[in-house]
Amino acid sequence: MIELQGLTKIYGDKTVVDDISLRVDSGEFGVLIGPSGCGKSTTLRMINRLIPATHGRILLGDDDVTQLPVEQLRRRIGYAIQSIGLFPHWSVAENIAVVPGLLKWPKSRIDERVDELMGLFHLDVGELRDKYPHQLSGGQAQRVGVARALAADPEVLLMDEPFGAVDPLTREVLQDELLRVHQHTRKTIVFVTHDMDEALKLASRIALLNTGRLVQYDRPIELLTRPADDFVRSFIGKADLGLKLLSRRWVHQYQQHATLQGSPAASTQAGYTWEVDATGRPTCLHGGRLHAEDRQQHTEVTQEWSATPDMTMKEALSRMVWFRVMVLPVIDGEGRLIGEVTMHGVMGQQPCA
Amino acid sequence: MRVAALKRPTSRDGLLASLSALLVLLVLFMEELAPLFQALFPELGNPVYRRESFLQLTLDHLLLVLVSSLISVSVGVGAGLFVTRRSGREFEPMVSSLAAIGQTFPPAAVLAIVVPLAGFGFVPTIVALTLYGLLPVVQNTIAGLGTVPPAALEAARGIGMTRGQILRRVELPMAMRVIIAGVRVSVIINIGTATIGSTVGAQSLGTPIIAGLVGNNIAYVIQGAVLVGLLAIVSDLIFERLERRFTFGD
Ligand SMILES: Nc1ncnc2c1ncn2[C@@H]1O[C@H](COP(=O)(O)OP(=O)(O)O)[C@@H](O)[C@H]1O
Ligand SMILES: [Mg+2]
Predict the structure, then answer these.
(1) Top-tier CATH class for A251-348
(2) Which of B150, B152, B248 lies nearest to residue A132, judging by beta carbons?
(3) How far apart, in Å, do the first and last CA atoms of chain A sit?
(4) Which CATH number fits domain A2-246: 3.40.50.720, 3.60.40.10, 3.40.50.300, 3.40.30.10?
(5) Scanning A149, A195, A234, B172, which has the fewest C-beta atoms within 10 Å of its C-beta?
(6) Domain boundaries, chain A
């Protein structure tokens, strides 16, 4: 748990961080967002005391951070930054092992931990363990940076625009991995970004800052549906507000019962019907295309236009539009049909909790 | 500490081995070349310098270089470290100009000043060589520490390294290649400059050169100069290898 109480930073006569109070509970994914220069990095760097606060208190669990010896504090807090800052004269394994080394873990435990983390971030141990930073791709280097931050199993992870410098494709992958790691480790994370889509995708709570002040601190869905003021509204952006909303909703919330071809319900309901093979995998959709003739209403099911329960509704909608169907099959891990999501559902229905 | 060993062509290693062998042979068996020098300079009565053995002269020469370089490096790296710490930053211009003065001051002039104070022999030579070799070490220490990426420093602090750990584990290893390059220049310069020690009675490979110049014996000059030159080249190649060991990526 991290709690900021009236946190303030003043440089000369310029108040850069102005009386910020907020709490990121244990296991939460908190995101600090706001326009460039609004004080996000300064706030983050006051938490691990890279910058001394002018006023206010920061609590890490029950401890006031200023009461702890500074190096000891920092070893309890993982820190990952956009420029990564890997040590160029150390191998990947040595970079990841640095904090456990500082904490004097036994060698065997450090080696185990390095392998475990490399596995967690899909870094090929055999190939990359002894490589040097200059031999890594941008995405690999950033993974190593985050792995290093997590190495000593810190209570809290601070991240300052860690994916800001990688290409959009890699960024998506890294975001997915971070979400997975967060679900797996339940670390408390404070993550800085200026990208609303990234914040919406990752955050369990978003703190929106403007000129050093905390404007709104809420769950993403509330930020979208109940913006505190015009600044929040304009920062979220009106143009694709609907899509942003759907990016915080999941297929399982909209999932409906799928009707099988030939079942009793098929004849009585006007909806779509599905053919499945012996293992329960959907093979063909009947109906579901607007303005199509009857013979075109048999659509073969492919992997690309099915949905999984943990997919965002934004992505599901995007697939419906791209493949021009009114419905997607929802499949489980084995590819079996477990339900459907429909365009009507997206439009009409409030999501179940 | 492990460092990246990059594979480079090794023809220079062969060069180093053969030049080292040549140096050792000449130091030990210069005497055997007496017929050669006699043939080249038939007018000379003594074609090979014999007052001291070349082995003794070489060891004396190396001692001068070693002692002065050890002092230059300790003082130079220390000063470079000091002015790159937060507490010493304001002294940087002063230290840089002092070191520059040390090098622009001709060693012969240093000898002229120090001899009346410290007498003849070893000590004034060491003072002159130390001052002369200081600048490249100071400059390269400052420059080398300046090449450490700020992101690595920020990460090192954020991770919880103490200042000493940051210096020992991050800054120095990363600056090492450039610092060694400075030491290399300093040592090479001093191998050449140490010869002037012989003018104030510090025995070195300069002794046969001076004797040759005074006694009009060109063979003595050549014998001293060839050994000094070989010594400088061999040291240079050794330093080059050392620098390569501290190269990480690009
Ligand atoms: N050392 C400093 N002295 C004066 N102003 C600073 C200093 N560091 C940052 N600032 C100012 O504080 C503001 C917030 O900076 P920062 O926290 O880095 O913003 P961001 O939200 O982009 O991360 C900026 O306007 C910046 O110019
Ligand atoms: Mg910033």
Answers:
(1) alpha beta
(2) B248
(3) 26
(4) 3.40.50.300
(5) A234
(6) 2-246, 251-348
